[in-house]
Amino acid sequence: MSAPTHTRSLPSARRTRAATAASTRLHWWALALPALAFGFLLLLLAGSGEAHAATGEVSGLVQAAEQLLRAVG
Predict the structure, then answer these.
(1) Of 20, 40, 17, 36, whose CA–CA distance to 28 is shortest?
(2) 61, 44 in Cβ contact below 8 A?
(3) Rg for the chain (alpha carbons), in Å?
(4) pLDDT tens-digit series, residues 28-53
(5) Phi/psi of residue 52, nearest 5 degrees
(6) Cα(33)–Cα(62) distance, rounded to whole angstroms?
(7) Residues 36, 49: Cα–Cα separation, whole Å
(8) Dihedral (C-alpha) 40, 44, 47, 52: value to the nearest 10 degrees?
(9) Are 61 and 47 a contacting pair, CB within 8 Å?
(10) ∠35-63-67 over CA atoms, to 5°?
């Protein structure tokens, strides 16, 4: 028993361009998340030169992270 086949008509050039342009557009978070991760890792590397034993004082990176969490949450 054979299944029926359907033929598709080829899309017009205008419809193809619109579909291609829409599928290649980036969302805002596709650029923001890698940039945020890069900045955070850069802060970690920049603060590692001042590493010291835990003395109870809070580092600048921890303060910045707390402020960021307060602003977001």
Answers:
(1) 36
(2) yes
(3) 26
(4) 888 999 999 999 998 888 876 666 66
(5) -150, 170
(6) 20
(7) 21
(8) 140
(9) yes
(10) 65
The token pair at 37 is 């991760």
What is the H or E stretch that residue 72 is in?
Answer: helix 60-72
Residue 22: both structure tokens together: 């829409």
Q: What is the pLDDT of residue 26?
A: 83
pLDDT confidence tier of residue 63, bands split at 50, 70 and 90? confident
Calculate the alpha carbon distances from 10 to 14, 16, 58 in Å.
Answer: 12, 9, 64
Statement: the pTM of the whole predicted model exceeds 0.70: no
Match 């361009």 to its residue by tokens. Answer: 17
| Whole-angstrom distance, CA of residue 57 vs CA of residue 39 | 23
